[in-house]
Specification:
- Two copies of one chain form a homodimer.
- Chain A is of the alpha/beta class and 423 residues long.
- Helix content of chain A is 38%, strand content 16%.
- Chains A and B meet through helix 2, helix 9 and helix 11 of A and helix 2, helix 9 and helix 11 of B.
Chain lengths: 423, 423
């Protein structure tokens, strides 16, 4: 018996480029534009489910190959979605959205493709039933999802351009000022610093300064595996008691396990555990106490719930990772976070750094440190078609086709390699 | 925002007793009647979702206490279901449906209560949307679910009563004849013998006889932890190569791990891993290679999918356990099995031993060794209200209020204790 419900008749994939400030990280610096793909899935009932994914060339290629095999699929047939995508992609090259989300893998390349469509199917399911995505995921356990302020070292503006208005942040004072601005504007209740940029002593000072300025705010530091194990030991010893968790101090499960064994500070990851294959060795080694989920590369909303169930079962904490994203993904992240009882940490989001948007305003925003779950149906957000068209033109014009933080840094510092660990 | 969709206005819980043959197991023998509860959840849209659960007194008490707190709950709010049941039950005594499904625990008592209502909510969701339960679970990956022939040592009939027509089976010849009858009638492609009844040598002979009579049929043996570790070692050595898997030879994770370490024969369990808390120690010890899920005590259909995800992630096989049940549960088991990609073993079912039924005929049956997924909507089966009323009268008359295989055996063998391990 075929599965009932609306089935797919057409899929549109629209790459967009959005202005992005020069945010520094362990491998380099954000380019002037970040790429995303907007997915629209039309059904025979006239419903359009939407989603948002990475927008780099390899992703777009996979999305287009996968889309060609999805006609006729019921929006309820999530198992069929995975099966069809595996068939459509056939042999697929290992990939990862960035060097900041773990090693490239075939599993991740397939999972990120499945996720892109699965979210759109959930949006369509919601529109077909009048339900919110969080309700389709089992019901909201919270109607407001806490997000953390994502602090970045940054230049005042992109090289050769005007300052971007976010301000320069290259030392503890700059980071505290940035945190103050974000907390004042969005009410964030916790703070995360993207580290691995400067020598650890400077970043330790930044954390101390944040602790002094925001004594009640949980703090996190994420050097994206830019430290050796000995450096990680040293920093962990300095920051024990000051951090809620330390994220990916060093590379790989064995290294993380070595650091974990020597500190009481909880270690978190979105780099050494990024596919389900990574979970058993990480559990066996005791490498991490918290996993940062990300529906974009874990395989979608249901896969993220599967990860949540594993974390709950194995006594691991669960938080949420973010890459640069727009409002469709913010809505998906919020619905997902609302439906996972054991997602007990404030989620990461790059939202505050984006000044361009593809959704109609008003549906979702961060206030008082939380995003209220959109009312729905589905994701509860609508595309601003003019904005999509404009940002697609920007995509066509910008020339960027794959994120390259290393190469962009090299335009400023010709000797830059981005090789880790640097400290 | 409240969750949309039909919400609960009324719940009916009807205990029923069904005739059960004298099936022998490690702790005793099945009584003349087995107890089940039929749950009917009525919504404000006039939809009635149905489910089937254990029917013993402690279960009924929990179901009734839980039901009192469920009015107004959306049929989509599965997280709310768990939360409300936890509140309604408050402090709950540890329980287990039988001595054959692991140690009593609070987790199992709550999980079995959640499951009873969750299945009914899924049935209601399906009726509200026109979808099958398997589609709501992510889509059927198979439209026909294989079941195994569940072979039992048994008496010709209950003491003091006429033979039941299933025949006596107390030796290898009797077991082979029973298997022949079940395979001829239902087309089963695999065979499972409930062991732990006679000295292991006799059960080894029965397995050899089955292997000779059905050389192409995968075989399983389940002595329900009635063997010591040394006995388990000995039997595993004798049966390596003859069994698809050996189920619960001995008690507890440490004992199972000891047996597993010494044999290439895969060990399966529905006794030492029966709650999510059991998974990490079992994984760490390498105690089992296959877990038998059972939505009734793992917490429902979504919880069973969570278990499936854990098994997939940790490289464990997944099969399905059965206690005595009726057609509503057979439908739920079939929808669930249809939607789990990594449920790769034929499922257990006691169906063939039940001559009484609560559902209208025709919706589900085992033929050629498989049950086709009912067409739906929801579970795709309907209650025969007359049958429910008749079996409820039988419940009132039979006097049994809690399964007691040990006590019933004692009426025949006064010295019987049911203490394990016996061999």
């Amino acid at each position: 018996m075929a599965i009932a419900g609306p089935s797919i008749v057409d899929i549109t994939i629209t790459p967009v480029a959005i202005a992005d400030p020069p945010l520094l990280n362990s491998v380099g610096v954000h380019e002037p534009f970040a790429l995303r793909a907007i997915i629209q899935v039309r059904t025979d009932d006239g419903i359009v489910g939407i989603s948002e994914a990475y927008g780099d060339d390899p992703t777009l290629d996979r999305l287009r190959r996968a889309a060609a095999g999805l006609k006729g699929l019921s929006v309820w047939d999530l198992n069929g979605l995975s099966r069809r995508i595996a068939v459509a992609l056939g042999a697929v090259a290992p990939d990862s959205p960035t060097e900041l989300a773990g090693a490239p893998s075939v599993a991740k390349a397939i999972a990120s493709t499945v996720s892109a469509f699965e979210v759109a199917l959930f949006d369509a399911q919601g529109k077909a039933t009048g339900l919110r995505v969080c309700d389709l995921l089992g019901g909201a356990v919270r109607e407001a999802v806490p997000f953390s302020a994502y602090l970045f070292y940054k230049w005042a503006g992109h090289p050769g351009r005007e300052p971007d208005g976010f301000g320069e942040a290259l030392d503890p004072d700059g980071i505290v000022a940035q945190a103050r601005a974000l907390v004042d504007r969005y009410g964030f209740g916790s703070l995360k610093l993207k580290g691995g940029v400067f020598p650890p002593e400077e970043e330790i000072e930044a954390i101390r300064a944040l602790h002094d300025a925001f004594p009640g705010h949980p703090l996190r530091l994420d050097p994206n595996a830019n430290w050796t194990v000995p450096t990680s030991h040293r920093v962990a010893a300095e920051l024990a008691g000051l951090l809620e968790y330390l994220e990916d101090p060093t590379d790989g499960i064995p290294g993380m396990a070595e650091v974990a064994a020597a500190t009481g500070l909880p270690l978190a990851t979105n780099m050494c555990v990024t596919t389900f294959d990574d979970v058993p060795p990480a559990v066996a080694a005791g490498a991490v106490r918290i996993v940062l989920s990300d529906h974009h590369f874990w395989g979608g909303l249901r896969a993220s719930q599967k990860l949540a169930g594993i974390c709950e079962t194995f006594g691991l904490g669960l938080s949420m990772h973010s890459n640069t994203h727009l409002g469709v993904s913010l809505a998906a992240m919020t619905h997902l976070a609302a439906a996972i009882p054991n997602l007990t940490y404030a989620c990461d989001t790059h939202s505050v750094w984006q000044v361009e948007e593809v959704i109609e305003p008003g549906a979702i925003a961060i206030r008082d440190g939380v995003a209220k779950v959109p009312d729905g149906p589905g994701l509860g957000v609508s595309l601003d078609e003019d904005a999509v068209a404009r940002l697609h033109q920007q995509y066509l014009a910008c020339g960027i086709r794959r994120r390259d933080d290393v190469g962009y840094m090299r335009t400023v510092h010709p000797d830059w390699t981005g090789t880790r660990p640097r400290f």
